[in-house]
Amino acid sequence: MRQELVHVIAGNVFAISDAEGDIELDPQAPVGLFAFDTRFLSHWVLKIDGERINALSRDDMTYFETRFFLVPGAASHYVDADVSIIRHRSVHDCFHEKITVLNHASQPAEFTVRMEMASDFADIVEVGQLREREVQVAVDPSSNRLVLRYERERFARETTVQSTAPVEVDEGGMTFRIHLDPGGSWTTDLHVSMTIQGEAGQDLRAGLQSHQRAVRGTMNEDLADWLDRAPHLVAERGGLEETYRGSLADLAALRYEPLAYSERVPVGGLPWAMALCGRDSIITCLQTMAFTPELAPATLRTLALLQGGQLDDEHDEEPGKILAQLRYGESAAFGERPTALYYGAADTTPLFVVLLDEYERWSGDADLVRELRHPARMALDWIDEYGDLTGDGYVRYQRRNERGGAINQCWKDSADAIVDAHGRQPAFPRATCELQGYAYDAKRRGARLAREFWGDPAYADRLEREAAALKDRFNRDFWLPQRDYYALALDPYGEPVDALSSNIGHLLWSGIVADDRAEAVAEHLVGSRLFSGWGVRTFATGQRVYNPVGSHLGGVWPSDNALIAAGLRHYRFDVQAARIAAGIFDLAQTLRGAVPEVIAGYDRSVTKYPVQLPSAGRPQSWSSGALLMLLGTTLGLRPTGDNLLVNPAVPGGFGRLELLDIPGRWGHADAYARDRTASPHRPRVK
């Protein structure tokens, strides 16, 4: 098995190392120190007297700091080790490492402490296929500093490492020659700054220790404030409160400030999506509306600022289209990949309107709705003008960039995700079913915004007519009467792609399902072909290409399941929704720690344990957000005017639940619930 990898993270700055804290190139994983899609450290290895070090233990203090407890040499040396090392690592906008060496012998001792350092300045998207770069190395012994720099035309990145202790600096790192009395200790702080061309440099010669303490204090205060602002959960079920707070902490870790904007928005997640991803950010905001509503206005404003304004085949850009991805790496800067501003997603645009309306329902922030009137109307116009590629009234996608654009531009965006029951891929442009649900929901919500806030009742009436027509047309063309479920997609000729998939659950969430067909959809979702016991599979068993370890062809996504459970409750299938919620909470509590992006779709009765996939990111914003959405769905939280409606459907075995101080236009409200086996007495607030 691969050795455990350890990470610290703050926004889109993160460091991934081995269990000893060392960083060495790994062709299969993004090991290193990264910020804004560039690796600023690719080699960071500590040695004592020429020996590598080994781990005794580790203290993961918060998402942004950890401590490694180490000894030099092989495992056989542990019992009689006369020296031990503590590495205290933290990240903020910079990277800090405090190294402490302790002499446990009864005699004085001298040690040579060596930190090897290097950077390849790799773009994160090319970690598996590295290119050669000419890195400039500058040694500054007078200030205990080593500077690594890479330049390519206007693109420049720089890593500066500085020590607070006297040191010998060379092009490969830093060497400390120390003397320790019996029972003595020695410490140095290593400060690594990361500079992007155009940003002002920092004077790191003075105050490094006080700066580190100030940053750590600020980060801890920020996390404490974030947790305090969120509702307080009191749960009878063991471990649920800890799981809830862990998800909140993961969401705190995954906030960053894009270079073009000053408010923090959620990134996709570690390690491959540490950037603004429109779909992930919008879904995360929808999931967390009752818990961390401050994510939504920043996300909406950022996406509106970056909204498409022209036809650009290279970046799949169209007027009104909402961003799919924003990257800052070298390949994006030079157009080697179209990711600097990439718009290849057909779902982000209608979901933008859904989020704007949902945020107003919770917050009462009419000013933001008026402020974003033009971007929202552009998004609604996109649905009909550019989303409808064949003129049949359905949102479809086909990449403009044939060289590097995304093949599938829905949430199941892997190249082989959209297939029929026999594994055949439909022609382009493709109309997946959930896109029609999102478009329907966006038109209905847009109509409300137009009537209540934009002063345009005629436009509202038009959107409502279009939504009703879309629902009728959809239920005619996508329904498979012989199978009692909706097709995964339509090909460009209107022929259905007959796979049974989790996408049908999104249809319930959007409200596009005809009432007389909702029960059949619900039963498929919790039937043995789709429901694994942990959650709903992306692709049902019994179909030719079903694969339990296939991300979109059989895996189980918490984010997917959160929307499905909410959809089931929307149609009053409370028992089915509770079953899905229970499975995902069991998954999270069994695995402990951050909720993974996806697990394998093996039947729970077979594996008895959620099987993680090596490609799955962890933490992920919409996976952590999924637990919050499922909690809100379990409690049946729904804003109704200036009031919060609570309509619980608690899974068996959960006992009593209290969610206190839920923020919204009503100020703060409390929700109480219990399952049928719970005591009628409310638990005492902790």
From TrEMBL:
Q: Where is the Putative glycogen debranching enzyme N-terminal domain?
A: 10-190
User: Which regions span the lipid bilayer?
Assistant: none
Residues in Mannosylglycerate hydrolase MGH1-like glycoside hydrolase domain copies = 391-605
What single Pfam family name could you report for this chain, choosing any that match?
A: MGH1-like_GH
Quote the protein name from its UniProt record.
Answer: Glycogen debranching enzyme
Lineage here is: Bacteria, Bacillati, Actinomycetota, Actinomycetes, Micromonosporales
